[in-house]
Amino acid sequence: MTMRSTRRQFAASAVAAMTLATLPTGLVASSPPFAGGKLHSFSDGSMNLPIDSVFYDIFDDDRQKFLKAAQVSDGIWRRPVNVNLLEIGERKILFDVGSGLNFLPTLGELPAALDAADVDIGAITDVVFTHAHPDHIWGILDDFDDLLMPDAAYHISQAEWNFWDSDDALTVMIPGRESFAVGAKSRFDKLRDQISFFQGGDEILSGIEAVDTAGHTPGHASFLIHNSAGPVLIAGDALTHPVISLQHPEWHDPADMDRGKAALTRKRLLDRLASDKIGLAATHLPAPGFGRVEANQSVWRYIAADS
């Protein structure tokens, strides 16, 4: 994983002070204003999964602890899908796009959330992908299978593109997830003329550094927003649960494509978030997904922004 300090590189374009604080519930939540812009969290809905499909290799006693910590009482794990929008200068930068209407019936709410907040979806200047799983990329298409944001510039890691654009993607999908590969490839076909690629450590946009957090997918990336009050990391699916990901980063999420690498990435990322006091924004942490990580003896602890 790459998260190197590039203070000189970003000094001229650093995002000004931002403080994550108590955030309202509902369709949209925002951090307080900071000079030049604002960071928002929008809801694309909830990914409702049978608990037996999640962390299915956890032993029974630990599973019960997990269920209690996750407040699951009906066998369904309700996993929020948060989508971040950074407004800075003249740019409106969307990190992932939700799932659209063709993945799960409880998802696809992002366009309505943007509309409710009076955000013109046509004014989005950049879309930056953490990875190409359905709840992160399928939402680029409208009801007519055209790009929902045709004038935006799109950005994805070269490794992520290379994997999902290859024939190998379909052959390595576990049974039942073949649509992940088919859906990613069909959306890549729509993006070919306006996609840009990056590597870990690149400054993909002014003040935004790509961080290699591969493991969940072959080219999963997170994004470090450099700002004078302290950096904030858009983490995507590098961390997916406020208890499991932090107390047991070695446990396997079934969606992790390289389990060993994903676990190692989580451990390294948690250590860096805690030691460098980096703010955190993540897709599946409790809505709106803003918080921070603290070291807690031999593990870590997630602290939501309103705590």
Topology of this protein?
Blueprint: H1 7-10, E1 28-30, E2 37-50, H2 60-69, E3 76-88, E4 91-95, H3 110-116, E5 126-128, H4 134-137, E6 153-157, H5 158-164, H6 168-172, H7 178-191, E7 195-198, E8 203-205, E9 208-212, E10 221-225, E11 232-234, H8 244-247, H9 259-275, E12 279-281, E13 290-296, E14 299-304
Identify the notable features of this structure and list them briefly.
single chain; 9 helices; disordered N terminus; 23% helix; alpha/beta; 307 residues; seven-stranded mixed beta sheet; 26% strand; Metallo-beta-lactamase, Chain A
Brief synopsis:
This protein is of the alpha/beta class and 307 residues long.
What does this molecule look like?
The chain is an alpha/beta fold and 307 residues long. It has one domain (7-304): 4-Layer Sandwich (Metallo-beta-lactamase, Chain A), CATH 3.60.15.10. 23% of the residues lie in helices and 26% in strands. The chain has helices spanning 7-10, 60-69, 110-116, 134-137, 158-164, 168-172, 178-191, 244-247, 259-275, and strands at 28-30, 37-50, 76-88, 91-95, 126-128, 153-157, 195-198, 203-205, 208-212, 221-225, 232-234, 279-281, 290-296, 299-304. The strands form 2 sheets. A 7-stranded mixed beta sheet has the order 1-2-3-4-5-6-7. It has a 7-stranded mixed beta sheet with strand order 8-9-10-11-12-13-14. α3 (110-116) links the parallel β4 and β5 (126-128). The longest helix has 17 residues, at 259-275. Residues 2-27 have low confidence and may be disordered.
